[in-house]
Design goal:
By secondary structure, the chain is an alpha/beta fold. It has a nine-stranded mixed β-sheet with strand order 1-2-3-12-9-4-7-5-6, with helices on both faces. Strands 8-13 form a two-stranded parallel sheet. A two-stranded antiparallel ribbon has the order 10-11. The longest helix has about 35 residues. It starts with a strand and ends with a strand.
Length: about 350
């Protein structure tokens, strides 16, 4: 771990002492990355995205294989499903896969940094925490980097229920981390049991808004995670992934229609990365992930709309504070001075 001392930051809204330093838990240096390491990084990130997409298409693949008589494919899908849903625990093979991904994935980018505010990782006094990650991006690349980061191995990363139910993605995610479902009953159960959780609250809408030239978050109407954290007295740590939006180009505009479809669980991104393989992120992008200080919430079993709104507003203020404070570290002095985040 490396430490960097900063000026004290006023944190009266946090209910916690001001953090005086940050701790970096991951620093990849592109200057020392070999072409072979970058190739392994490309294999890792493309595999993650292909598994993601094939998981979404797995019901259709199963239907076609049954209809057309491709019984070997049918048997393979059934086998994967059985393995994915069996109550096994991670062993040597899973740990090897996780270490391979954790060591090679960051080598693809033009540097990766994961920085925690607060000065201690893990903290000497652990407090149950909810990590809210922004922006979603096209394929949650920053989220994926956090998912396999050893520092975050105790955290349950909550995925869209349909994605987590898919056998391909369920098996993959169980092999490399601690996944869970973002369904409301599941989230209640995790937090009630005292688990730390992570979620990209911006969801499909935030993915739709992805742009290579403008940072955006979709949070103004996202109250559910704040209500849950108030119910169980769980601290919230805002997380911002600088560079996420620059990894994939995305068709812009028609926001009203596209966001309306998102409310029905229909993704409306039209994205592409590199010209020869559109599912591979663009090269030359620096990923800078900042895990903010905990916002310490009171425990209110049945919070009112007004109480939720108060803490939701404090969350947005803190998220914007993180963006403004670290944008020059992420983008450089010249670009960082003019960079702004749109809050939808």
């Amino acid at each position: 771990l490396t430490e960097e001392y900063l000026e004290p930051i006023d944190s009266n809204i946090m209910g916690a002492p001001a953090a005086k330093k940050t701790v970096s838990v991951l620093e990849s240096n592109p200057a020392t990355t070999t072409k072979f390491e970058a190739f392994l990084g490309a294999i890792t990130v493309s595999s993650f995205i292909v598994i993601w997409l094939s998981s979404a298409a797995s019901p259709l693949i199963l239907f076609i294989s049954l209809r057309e008589g491709y019984y070997k494919i049918t048997a393979f899908i059934i086998l994967i499903t059985i393995i994915a849903y069996l109550p096994w625990k991670r062993g040597p093979i899973s740990r090897c896969v996780q270490r391979f991904i954790d060591s090679n994935h960051p080598q693809y980018y033009n540097g990766v940094s994961i920085v925690f505010e607060g000065g201690e990782v893990p903290p000497s006094e652990h407090r149950q925490t909810f990590f809210a990650v922004h922006p979603h991006g096209a394929f949650c690349i920053g989220w994926a980097l956090l998912f396999t980061c050893p520092t975050m191995h105790r955290v349950r990363f909550c995925f869209a229920p349909s994605l987590f139910a898919s056998p391909f993605f369920r098996l993959f995610s169980r092999a490399v981390g601690k996944p869970g479902s973002a369904a409301r009953p599941s989230m209640n159960a995790y937090l009630k049991n005292g688990e730390d959780c992570a979620l990209p609250p911006g969801g499909f809408e935030e993915a739709t808004l992805t742009s290579t030239s403008q940072d955006r978050v979709f949070i103004k109407k996202r109250y559910g995670f704040v209500r849950l954290c108030l119910k169980y007295g769980v601290a919230i740590r805002p997380v911002y992934v600088f560079g996420e939006g620059r990894l994939f180009s995305n068709v812009q505009g028609f926001w009203g229609n596209r966001l309306a479809l998102n409310r029905f669980g229909i993704p409306t991104i039209i994205v592409w990365g590199r010209w020869f393989f559109p599912l591979l992120p663009k090269k030359g992008v620096k990923i800078y992930i900042v895990v903010g200080k905990p916002i310490v919430l009171p425990k209110i079993e049945n919070p009112t709309k007004e109480e939720v709104a108060v803490w939701h507003n404090k969350y947005i203020v803190e998220l914007k504070r993180i963006y403004d404070e670290y944008k020059e570290d992420a983008y450089g002095a010249d670009e960082g001075k003019v960079a702004k985040v749109e809050v939808w």
